[in-house]
Amino acid sequence: MKIARPSGLTVLTGLLLVLLPALAILQYRWVGHVAEAEGERMQTHLRNAALQFHEALDGEVTRAITNLQIGAATAREGSSDRYTDRYEAWVATSAHPQIVANVYLLDDEGSGIRVRRWNASDRALEASSWPQVIEPWREMIEMDRRVFRSGAGFGRPPLVINDESLTIAPLRPQPQPAGSPPEQNRPTWGFTIVQLDMPFIQTQLLPELAQRYFGLNDDRGYRVAVLDTADPTKVIYRSDDEAPTTPAKAAAVEPLLGVTGRIFFNRGGGGRGGGDRRDGDRRDGVRRDGDGRQTFVGVFRGGDPGRGFGEQRDSGRWTLLAQHQSGSLEAAVAATRRRNLGISSGILILLSATVLMLTVSSRRAERLARQQMEFVAGVSHELRTPIAVIRSASENLAQGVVASPDRVKRYGDTIGAEARRLGDMVERVLQYAGIEAGRVISSTAPLEPLSFVEAALRATSPLIASAGITVEKSLSPNLPLVMGDSSALTSAVQNLLTNAVKYGGANPWLAITASQTKGARGTEVRVSVEDHGPGIPHADLPHLFEPFYRGADATAAQIQGNGLGLSIVKRIVEAHGGRVTVSTRIGTGTVFTIHLPAAPPAAATVSTSLVGSESAAAHS
């Protein structure tokens, strides 16, 4: 016995079904690796963004503080071209000169502390009362002046003001020629206080930096908050209400206004100072004067004004907190993983569905090809039979074998019947070919249902008469019109009548009814054809309207047919907006019913008008 080999498509389908689980496992691992890489990328991006934010803010503030320090010569003279040039150069090169609100000078006028404010318009220092913002540290500043005047000014700790809007630095010493007496190199007491514009920083600078480095408007961006380091409950800036307020909730924590906020503070004694930066040079927190002496820098920090001098700390004056919009980087990475997993799973599901559809389509194509081959074989056989009968009868008549008039008539009837049978087969095949080509309906018009029902009965009357079948008709008058093609609907009803004759069994009986009913979609016309045949097996019902399909019982009984009749009926009725139903009982019979929607009232009115016009024309 020859064993059938599986087709190439079957082998390919099997391989794909085996590979799909492996692909699913690989996909899951790949998505995990991608998620880990995405997490590392996001973490690196966040660190870089926080560092860039830090450098941008600290750089802007540091440049302002460094460039706006006032020297001893400017303090003594009240104005200075060098300081004015430096101030204007800073304004011209600064991205945000609005960051500075005021520059104050505090120095010793002998009887007390003199307070002056730099007026950029007049390029001079103008007298000012004690600013309200400096008032809380007035006693501390006066104590520092007394300590300085007592001769203990060298090596004293830096003066600290605990206010985020203020920075304080001692006066730059005035440069003296080499060999000058020591008393001339003695530092001058005084401080430059730079007041930052906090409203501008909070409402413009910080939001701009946050948007630039953290992409606040992006769904994959971050929430940003800036807090006071000394008092974490004090919020300097917050990008939105959900921005973190504690380091525990932040993915990145970065000190601000810390080491980058250095200011000059003379910690040495004697020697030449840098003056108004005439020949001084600063690198790495150390200023080297022209004669090689070093002046170390001080760092402004938070402190307690009540203690007089605060201790330096390593943290910045502010703290930057950044958090991903998802709440945490872990949540963002998990969301990315879920998204990637969903996309890849969707692709796998689509691939699986494609394989499944390919398999189903292949099986259907194979079944259809087999049915087509059976159809060709069946049609060839059915064509051969009437052709053989016609040829044999015609040869007998031509050769004079049949001489009796009765036999000649019988031969003629036989030739006619076989010719009609042959014509019906050819017509059915041509009709199916037209339906497959999309030519189901040639034209539509309002039709009387009884017109195509009676036409179908007339067309099948010879077949019914030859089979000796009794026909019961129950055709209701005044049925609503239907919109359709008369020829196509006649063919559909005719096919049902022909099937009832062929499959009616030993009981030569059929019934045809036409009635009006209310269906789910409104009024409809029902045309039913019933027989008392053996019925249709339930296994054949799902395939009953498929082209070329013939039931096993019909094939075994050698009932003539090609499996196209019911398929043609279904296609014609559905093209008219209707449907075909079947009811069968084994050993009792079968009923096929055509459901056609009634024509709308407008179509019926038009049809009546046309009929009336034709009648009037006929009588004129």
Task: Give a structural overview.
46% of the residues lie in helices and 19% in strands. It has 620 residues and is an alpha+beta fold. The chain has 2 domains: 38-334, no CATH class; 443-619, 2-Layer Sandwich (Heat Shock Protein 90), CATH 3.30.565.10. The strands form 5 sheets. Strands 3-2-1-5-4 form a 5-stranded antiparallel β-sheet. Helix 7 (405-436) packs across helix 11.
Characteristics:
single chain, alpha+beta, Heat Shock Protein 90, 46% helix, rod-shaped, disordered C terminus
Write the layout of secondary structure elements.
Blueprint: H1 8-67, H2 72-77, H3 81-93, E1 100-108, E2 113-119, E3 124-127, H4 138-152, E4 166-170, E5 190-196, H5 198-214, E6 222-228, E7 235-238, E8 252-256, E9 262-264, E10 281-283, E11 286-288, E12 294-299, E13 318-324, H6 329-398, H7 405-436, E14 445-447, H8 449-467, E15 470-475, E16 482-484, H9 486-502, E17 509-519, E18 522-531, H10 552-556, H11 565-575, E19 579-585, E20 589-597, H12 601-619
| Low-confidence blocks of residues | 259-314, 608-620
Q: What is the 3D form? A: rod-shaped
Strand content: 15-25%
Content-based structural category: alpha+beta
* Total domains: 2
What would you report as the Rg, rounded to the nearest angstrom? 52 Å
Instruction: Give helix % range.
Output: 40-55%
Q: What count of helical segments does DSSP give?
A: 12
Major sheet characteristics: 5 strands, antiparallel
Distance between the termini: 82 Å
Mean pLDDT figure: 77
